[in-house]
Design a protein that fits this description.
The chain has 224 residues and is of the alpha/beta class. It is built from seven helices and eight strands, in the order E-E-H-H-E-H-E-H-E-H-H-E-H-E-E. It has helices spanning 40-44, 51-60, 81-90, 104-113, 127-134, 139-151, 169-181, and strands at residues 6-13, 22-27, 67-72, 94-99, 118-122, 155-162, 188-192, 221-223. Bound molecules: iron/sulfur cluster (SF4). Residues 30, 32-34, 37, 39, 43, 72-74, 100, 200 line the site of iron/sulfur cluster.
C-alpha cells in the first residue's frame, strides 16, 4: 500500500460534485495513458499526501464541506481506498468517485462496502478504438465496471472527452448505442478536450469538425 497515495488536494470546489461543496483528492498514477490527458504531472508523479494527512485535512474542514471527490490519475489504484472511504464517511462526508473503469475489482469492493454516493465513469472510446486512445487493452474491464454500476442502485453518470482528432461523431454514436442497449437512461456528458494546456501525449491541431447535428438522440446528451 502506498504510504502517500495522493498527489494533491484541491480544498474547495463547487463544480466537481453535483449539488455539493467538496474537496478533491488527486491520486497519483493511472492505468491509462490518454494522449489528451491534461494531468500529466499527476499521472506520472509520486504521491505526497498520506492517507492520514488526507483525513486530518477533512477533520479540519468539517461543517465547511459536504463531500470529497476521489480523482486523479486513477483513485482505484490505491489499495487502501475502501478503508479510506470508510473513514471519510465516518467523518460525515459524501464520496464521489471519478474513474476510468479499468479496475472493476476495486470498484466492486467499493460498491459492496456501500461507501460511494456517486460515480462519474469515463467511457473513453468504443471497443475498436479503446486501446489506441487509452493505451490500455482491457475494454472488457471497463465494460465490467459499467455493468456493475448498471446493476446497482447507485447514482452515476457516464462521460466522454471528445478530441476531434481521435473520436468522430460515429464513434460517439456507437457509445450511445451501447449505453442505450445496456439499459443506461441517465444523462451522457460530452466534454471538449482542452487544447491549450500541457498534455500527456502529442495531439495534432484539431482540424476536423465534430458534426453535432449527426449525434444520436437515444440519450440526453449534455456538453460541458
Ligand atoms: S485522462 Fe487518461 S491518462 Fe489522464 S487521468 Fe484520465 S484515464 Fe488517466
Amino acid at each position: 500500500m502506498s504510504t502517500a497515495p495522493i498527489y494533491d488536494i484541491t480544498p474547495f470546489t463547487a463544480l466537481d460534485y453535483p449539488e455539493h461543496l467538496a474537496a478533491i483528492f488527486w491520486f497519483a498514477g493511472c492505468n491509462m495513458r490518454c494522449s489528451y490527458c491534461y494531468n500529466p504531472d499527476i499521472v506520472l508523479g509520486e504521491g505526497k499526501i498520506s492517507h492520514g494527512q488526507a483525513l486530518d485535512f477533512l477533520k479540519k474542514r468539517r461543517g465547511m464541506l459536504e463531500g470529497v471527490v476521489l480523482s486523479g490519475g486513477e483513485a482505484t489504484l490505491y489499495s487502501g481506498l475502501p478503508e479510506l472511504c470508510q473513514e471519510i464517511r465516518k467523518l460525515g462526508y459524501k464520496i464521489k468517485l471519478d474513474t476510468n473503469g479499468a479496475n472493476p475489482t476495486m470498484l466492486l469492493r467499493l460498491l459492496e462496502k456501500g461507501v460511494l454516493d456517486y460515480v462519474a465513469l469515463d467511457y473513453k472510446a468504443p471497443k475498436q478504438k479503446f486501446q489506441a486512445i487509452t493505451k490500455n487493452k482491457h475494454f472488457d474491464h471497463f465494460s465490467l465496471s459499467l455493468s456493475e454500476l448498471l446493476q446497482r442502485d447507485i447514482a452515476f453518470e457516464v462521460r466522454t472527452t471528445v478530441c476531434n482528432e481521435l473520436l468522430s461523431v460515429e464513434d460517439i454514436n456507437h457509445v450511445i448505442n451501447d449505453l442505450f442497449r445496456r439499459g443506461y437512461r441517465g444523462k451522457y456528458y460530452l466534454q471538449h478536450y482542452i487544447e491549450d494546456t500541457p498534455h500527456l501525449g502529442r495531439i495534432k491541431k484539431q482540424k476536423y469538425q465534430f458534426e453535432i447535428d449527426k449525434l444520436s438522440n437515444q440519450l440526453d446528451v449534455i456538453w460541458r
